[in-house]
Amino acid sequence: MEKKERGRFFTHLAKTRGKLLSGLQSVVPHGKKIDISVLEDIEDHLILSDFGVEVSREIVESVRLNGEISSTEELRSRFRQQIVGMLESVELPFQIMNSGKTQVIVMVGVNGVGKTTTVAKLAHWLSNAGYSVMLAACDTFRAAAVEQLQSWGKKLEMPVIAQQRGTDAAAVAHDAFESALARDIDVLIIDSAGRQHVNVDLMEQLKKIHRVLARIDPSAPHETMLVVDAGNGQNILSQTEVFNNSVALTGICVTKLDGTARGGVTVALARKFGIPIRFVSTGESLEDFAPFEAALFAEAILPLSG
User: What's the rounded mean pLDDT across residues 61-82?
Assistant: First the structure.
C-alpha cells in the first residue's frame, strides 16, 4: 500500500484505535506497575472492542506468559505481536489465475453490509490492475439493487447483465457467465441477493447459483466472497458460519471499518474461521478499498506510540 493510501487507512481506523488506546491509558497510567490485575482490565477493553471473549483471553494470556513487562511501550508491542500473529494466517491476497478463461466471483452477505458498493470497489480495483470485468445483477429480489449495480456499471464503464425483477437469480448468473465467456471477459462478479443469513430461501438460491455455474465450468465459482460490516460486531461470526456452511466461503471482505470502534472483530473472525480476509473497505470512495495486510492493520489499530 502506498504512503498516501496508508495515511487514509490509518485515518479511517481512528475509532477502533482511539477506543483501544483510551482503554490502555485508563488502566495503565504513567508509572503504574503492569501486573496481572492490569492485564485483566486490558482483557475487558479488548472484549469491548469486539475482539471477543476467547480471543481477548488468549491474547492476554500469551502476553502474560512471555514474562514481566517493564513499560507501556513493551506492553503495546507484545499485544501487537499477538494480533499480527492471529491475522497473518488469513493474509492471502486475492489473485486472478492465468487460465485464459473467465473467472467468477460470487459476492454474498446479508442486507445492509454494503455488498453492491463492495462489488463496484472490487471491479474498480480489478480494472485498475488491467483486467476486463463484467457485473451480474443477481439480486433480482430488489429492483433497487439491480438499478444500483447498473448505475455503477455505467460509472465504471463495465457491462452489466441484468433481467427484470423476480427472474430466477441462477438463470441470470448462467446467462452472465455464458456472455462473459463469449466476450473473453477476465472476471465476472456476481452480486447476489442480500437478506438475513437465517433466510433459508436465500441459502438455497446461493446453492443453486453455484450449481448452475459449475455446469458451465466445474471449477466455478472460483471465489465466493462474504462481505461483512464491522459495525455488526460479534454478529459477523454467526453470519460467517451460516454462509460458510452453505456455500464454502473462500474469502472475506470487511467493510465500514471507518464508521465503528469494533474493528477488533476482524481478529475474532480470523481466529475462529481462518478464512482468507481478501480486502478491507474503510470509506465511501472507490479508493477506500485495499488488500488486507495483517501488520498494517495491527499497526493502525494499536500503534506503538501516540
Answer: 84
